[in-house]
Hints:
- The structure is a single chain.
- The protein has helices spanning 17-32, 37-47, 64-71, 83-100, 112-116, 136-147, 170-183, 198-205, 225-233, 239-244, 247-258, and strands at residues 54-58, 75-79, 107-109, 121-130, 151-162, 209-217, 220-222, 268-270, 273-280.
- By secondary structure, the chain is α/β, with parallel strands linked by helices.
- The protein is globular and about 50 Å long.
- Helix 3 packs parallel to helix 4, helix 7 (170-183) packs antiparallel against helix 11 (247-258) and helix 9 packs across helix 11.
- The protein is built from eleven helices and nine strands.
- The longest helix has 18 residues, at 83-100.
- The protein is 42% helix and 21% strand.
Amino acid sequence: MTPTLVRHHRHTEPSAPGADGASRARDWAEIQERMLAPLYEAVYARLEVGPATRMLSLGCGSGLALLMAAGRGARVTGVDADPDRLALARARLLPASEDRGATAAPRLTDTVAAAAEGGPHNLITAFTPIGCEAGDGEELVRALETAVPSADRGSTVVLTGWGPPERCATEAVLRVAGRLADDGRAPGGGWRGPRRDDLEDVAFRAGLKPDGSGRVACPFGYADMDSAVRGLLSTRLFEAAVRATDRWQVEKELAEALHPHRRPDGTVWMSNVFRYLVCTV
């Protein structure tokens, strides 16, 4: 297991909103984002992503999925509304493209409309799994309505979501976020949980034609409890819970929920399965 590269968070440290956002973005890049690497690789292998691919990634985060696609020769565009994650993606991707001598540098922007202007694309990916928060499917539909017109007819769109609850150990841990948000009556809270037809519903509403699906094992493994708490907090799924209570309370209850998944050597391990749906425009 790769050790984390940032110092341990101390509960007594106050954090300004801006600093907290930058810290969570680093935790995402250094701890959490790699957990979905098997999903990215499985999709790219199935679709034979390579030099002929012109990919638009919705919710590109700090750029790992883009970097993996670019490593296969794809021309990549990424969009993410989080300025801190986007800054990390630029720091990661732009030097890498210069080192490879790429003919087209990656394009990174904070709005779907601006990203769509860089088309035409023949692959659109949405690698942020839906099925956790109420409304995440609606948000994805809106993004697709803007992005899909930038794609060639017959292009591919990939949607992703959490797998069956009985095969996702992390789901029970994530329910802490919904419970704390609901108890505090925070706006934007509410755990919904994944449903079997989540991805098909989004595809139908976005005018896409499903054309196959798959499941990929993506275990969440952490070097220690502190890394596990920080990694999960970096997913943005606990923001409503933090607003409803406070960060210390969320961290405390999250650690308690993670305790059953702690191994004798101190590492934390949870098995998960994620689902992807391949669609055509």
